[in-house]
Please model this.
Amino acid sequence: MENKNICIDLNKVIKGDVIYYPINELIHREQIMRVGNILLGRMKEAEEYTPGRNGEFKHQTDIISVFARRGAGKTTFVQSLIKLIQYSNEEPFSTLGKDLYCLELLDPNNTERKENLTIRLIAQIHHVFQKAADNIRHQQSENYERVYNDRERLIENFDRATQDLYKTLPVLDGIGDPCLYSNWDDSVYLSDRFMELTINASKLEKCFHLYLDAGLRLIQKKALLFVLDDCDIKINNTFQILAIFSTILKIYT
Model:
């Protein structure tokens, strides 16, 4: 009689509080290796990019799409990809894990109708960067012989880049009160104020690039990975998120 027992070696699939499967045990290993190699190639380009160096800002928005029928395992695929990047010691994922930070899975269907998605995406990124900065500050506060070092310089650069980015955010739809100056009669001040907002609008993309660069140096990574799930349910939300990526990352040299 054929033995139909299934044996699972828990020592192989559990790492801490995470269930993790080796590459050769995944049913979609060919596809996941292909995505891993694509990401590895993009990472090599990211390593050579420093925003603002010699006045250079690049536009590179890479999107990898996973197509399959409903129930075929697309969510499982992307979750496996994230865990491989985070925990695997197999190539190319062990190399990716050193330089690529995976943000939390984003479901376009869970966004509110009036929610500003640009701010939500920036907030998701900022939470990661700010947590790293707070950890560094906490470690420094426990050092009685505190001296100015490279880590403090990274925090200063990050704080400066954050403030510069904040100055550009009022140009986004839904940020700030459009009636704030409705009762003002100082035309010179208003002209100067709105001129300043217009100038800041032109700086949004550059400030975002510099902000990402400062934050990535803080967490010691070279790039961020966004993963969108269930994009086909509310396709308009998905298009809106992709348009945001195109807008805030689009800079021409």
